[in-house]
Automatic annotation (TrEMBL):
Protein name: Guanine nucleotide exchange factor subunit RIC1
Region (Disordered): 436-463, 984-1005
This protein's encoding gene: RIC1
Family statement drawn from the similarity comment of this UniProt entry: Belongs to the RIC1 family.
An annotated Gene Ontology molecular function: guanyl-nucleotide exchange factor activity
InterPro entries: Ric1, RIC1_C, WD40/YVTN_repeat-like_dom_sf, WD40_repeat_dom_sf
Subunit description: Forms a complex with RGP1; the interaction enhances RAB6A GTPase activity. Interacts (via central domain) with RGP1. Interacts with RAB6A; the interaction is direct with a preference for RAB6A-GDP. Interacts (via C-terminus domain) with RAB33B; the interaction is direct with a preference for RAB33B-GTP. Interacts with GJA1.
Biological processes annotated in GO: intracellular protein transport; retrograde transport, endosome to Golgi
UniProt-annotated location(s): Cytoplasm, Cytosol; Membrane
Domain spans labelled RIC1 C-terminal alpha solenoid region: 827-985
Any GO CC annotation of this UniProt entry: Ric1-Rgp1 guanyl-nucleotide exchange factor complex
Domain of life: Eukaryota
Amino acid sequence: MYFLSGWPKRLLCPVGSPAEPPFHIQTDSQRAFFAVLAPAHLSIWYSRPSVLIVTYKELAKSSTQFGSYKQVEWRPDSTMIAVSTANGYILFFHIASARGEKYLYEPIYPKGSPQVKGTPHFKEEQYAPSLHLEMKKVLDLQASIISLQSMLEDLLVATSDGLLHLIHWEGMTNGRKAINLCTVPFSVDLQSSRGSFLGFEDVHIKDMEYCATLDGFAVVFNDGRVGFITPMSSRFTAEQLRGVWAQDVMDGTCVAVNNKYRLMAFGCASGSVQVYTIDNTTGAMQLSHKLELTPKQYPDIWNKTGAVKLIKWSPDNSVVMVTWEYGGLSLWSVFGAQLICTLGGDFAYRSDGTKKEPLKISSMSWGAEGYHLWVISGFGSQNGDVESDIKSSANQPGILQFQFIKSALTVNPCMSNQEQVLLQGEDRLYLNCGDASQAQSPRNSSAHSEHKPIREKSPFSDGNLDSQGLSTLLGHRHWHVVQISSTYLESNWPIRFSAIDKLGQNVAVVGKFGFAHYSLLTKKWKLFGNITQEQNMIVTGGLAWWNDFIVLACYNLNDHQEELRVYLRTSNLDNAFAHVTKVQAETLLLSVFRDMVILFRADCSICLYSIERKTDGLNTTASIHILQEVSMSRYIPHPFLVVSVTLTSVRTETGITLKMPHQACDAESIMLNLAGQLIMMQRDRSGPQIREKDNSPNQRKLLPFCPPVVLAQSVENVWTTCRANKQKRHLLEALWLSCGGAGMKVWLPLFPRDHRKPHSFLSRRIMLPFHINIYPLAVLFEDALVLGAVNDTLLYDCLYTRGNAKEQLEVLFPFCVVERTSQIYLHHILRQLLVRNLGEQALLLAQSCAALPYFPHVLELMLHEVLEEEATSREPIPDPLLPTVAKFITEFPLFLQTVVHCARKTEYALWNYLFAAVGNPKDLFEECLMAQDLDTAASYLIILQNMEVPAVSRQHATLLFNTALEQGKWDLCRHMIRFLKAIGSGESETPPPTPTTTQEPSSSGGFEFFRNRSISLSQSAETLPASKLNLQKTLSMPSGPSGKRWSKDSDSAENMYIDMMLWRHARRLLEEVRLKDLGCFAAQLGFELIGWLCKERTRAARVEDFVIALKRLHKDFLWPFPVIPISSISSPFKNGKYRLGGGEQLSKSQSADPFLNLEMDGRGPSAPRSQSWLGNIGSTRQEIDTVSSHGAQTQDAFLSPLLNKGDECSIGSATDLTETSSMVDGDWMMVDENFSTLSLTQSELEHISMELASKGPHKSQVQLRYLLHIFMEAGCLDWCIVIGLILRESSIINQVFGLMQSSEVDGEMLRNVKTGLYAIDRWASTD
């Protein structure tokens, strides 16, 4: 609503000596001038720029006669000032332009600047006028003057002898007698026949303020009672006055009235503000709400503020500023939502934690449009060593100017159908829609399918009125700040209205005269080309965007005519391109709904216009036709009381019962906010329905409206949308209300399920209240989010040492910034529906929002809030909601996560209450295991550990550990090992952390165990024997995350238990020939593989079936089978299909029968692999990840005949070449040309490419070599043979045979190797 910005400014106060500081400030009705009072000085300040214009100093002689100045009041036309003095005199001053010199200050521009001095009103805007003060009249009232109040042409004065004087501004009483308050009858309401009179002596008015819309005075008496005095007829005499008491207030101190909302705010000695309104029927004073600090928010100060000292409503009546006797400022919205308070946080404490002296305020006044608050301050008595030495400048009263940014909704409520937040400062706009040029595509369109010219259609709109993408509306915390054109501001300050279009790409602002608009895409302002046209129009009722058009209501100064104008954004800003419609009376409010414009006029009538786009030739304009006029004068006492008026498609019956379903989105009702009362007028469908034939929409007879119905009280803002979405009807057809301190309300439609007949007893709509923690400024309907803004503060007092600071403003005040904020509200609504036994509606609503990214959070919030409230309630709850909420959440697949996340964020004491409602945690744990949701199961394990005996949690942990091992969730396995150890050693107080994010599956490839190893694992096999000893050292002591586990207490029972499970898993992996998984398992869990393999050499670590093992390893490590040599093929490219190789893409084998049993010598040339190989050969000889799966006819290496020679021999299989280039039927010439450039012989090249083609991915090679080291160390020679065959390196086979001959190898193993090799031989030759 209103937000503080930056630091306050201190104005230079040349007035008087320190003995005569200013103590009172009062603005004139236009807020252009400020009168500042000191004991014997009256000075007039100009507001922009903030400069002193003239000072009147009382002579010493007359000063003793009159006494010191006390209060000041302006005449409504700003030509006179009345000052009351201590000895009961009223001094009337006349303000005139100074003779001779008309202007006191003028701006100086640098040479060549574009500012034009010739524009109309330029001097009035840019120059500070020179004024002259002259005392015209002195009036002696012979009693101390307590209160001074301007009332139209008269001045109302209350004196301490209990009299009310009505004085004309010329200083005459006009023969009217003063009214004695004792003769005014007071009663509880105006209906009682006779009132009682003030029953105490020396009664007088302490403070009073006139309220035009209530036609009377809010008064505070000197004994603390408060009331309202109203004349019963037009004459203001004692016989005609009647008074009404507020029965509950006995400690009133001050009062301020809000004319727009008809509210009277009474400050009390207790520190709270009681806000009253007058009951329309009885005339009694009714308490509307209270403004008070809560002990929850301000525990140390809420009851120590002292009495309320001052209350001031802002110029637009949307917020109120309150200050207390002991200091501090607080800002509240109309109906009591707290926006700012300087008694807490950085305002009250320094960065070192010490408490600051609160700012004490003796007087304050709002500046034009509420952008500034002028304050006369004096900080409280300073007690400190430094301050006592140095007379602090802040100690003396001075004039401070606080700066504010406000929401566009405060002055232009038609913005409420938008999803953007727009804030306006005095010279800049703050938008939340991000940078339009980089905005995301809207949520329905998948991508920028086509980029049309910006003029025609924006690249990120998708034609229909869709809401903006979440990413642009919520993207980050920062605002998109648009500086308002200085050329426009110079002659049109202050900015009165602003509006943004549906897509958030264009903004328009209205100052004193005319308007200007800005495109976020081009980053340019567009102003009137003809300055006279701009200065001839005053926008009266706000402005709105309709597609590419700006719609505004204005007063034409030339023709003295009220008009409704439409300007096209893309054409030049000129009246020649505008469509102008004359209007009968002044427009106060304007709003747009679909293709209709709705005006509320000063004669209390509502006019509906249709607006449509017209293109004649090159010119595009909009045409406007009046559709309907509705008089509201019967229901509206004063036109100024209407806060907002809008058309909506909301109605009380649902679309199913309508005869014409297509009208579901028509303008069905008018919503009118009348001084906080939301009034709805629906179309009257009770009469005969008119059938539409061929008549155009302009001639269509619109249905009349029913009499108004009051929907809600204390309403500040209303949001509805004209979009439709069948999936989210609940949210889009609802009406959202912001109700100040009472939070928000939503008027939600209730739909029968599956188009069943609606229940006759079920209401069609329901009003649900809910509280949110932010002040709402926009509603994102489909996204179930409220957007807002919040003041944040930054302390800079560390920049100053306490010695030299002299309490600078930067030290006394934090720097204020405005931050974007948002809040989910869906859980509040679901909960309210469940409370009212509307579970079916809640389910429909929740299912429509289940795709939202934060939906799991919504369920969790709802469960958490209900649990906290019910489990910590001191009273027994007759009808608990938790079981209903638990049952509701089970309808969603996220049930298990929701419950466990809620439990983990709740204290242990509430767990029993929670699980009594949602079910036994053991059952929920088992459900997680069945659903393979191991991370959630791990969270349940922590709950079981705290709620069950260790044996139970151990049993469940074992289950989870085994499942995690099976699925290769290594992070979880590590946590489980720690957890099982903790249970065993009694450390169960430290539960394992819940596993985070995605675990890597076992197939993800790399063993990540090279981190702390000292050996280079890609070295060739020939160096193996030399490094054997070194390997023994490095690998025997694993240094994985839980390496320590194996060292000190490995003989304890708990470690034995864990080891048994690990051994069992390793045995399973070996039996199933899952060597890749075994490597990952050992590396991730620090499992001592070598030691275990040594023990299991003759049992689990035997190779049972060499052929199966060979096939399985080829498949697991993506290792290609041997490639046929080229010599026997005329052209490799003619023999089959080729596909891009690499990664895990397997190509189908095409075998060629004639070459199946062809034998070659060891160094056979191999096929060239096309031009893309050449780069690799030339550069790094890096292995290519080629893959070729074994098909049914694939052959493998046939090694047995030549084993003794130690040569690697291969029988070529007729697998196809895995192509890496796009050559399918290549021309050999091209390849040959490339060969010659490399100066390689054909056979050399074939040999190189053969070598490359026979290798798998580099990663697999590293992994296989590592496993080879491990098996070699453990003496599992049969596995070494298998790996040697796959790598096709004869040196490995030689080495194994060497080991078999030299060392005492088990005879059983030799026999196993022999049988295995024969089996491979048979398979290779026959299969």
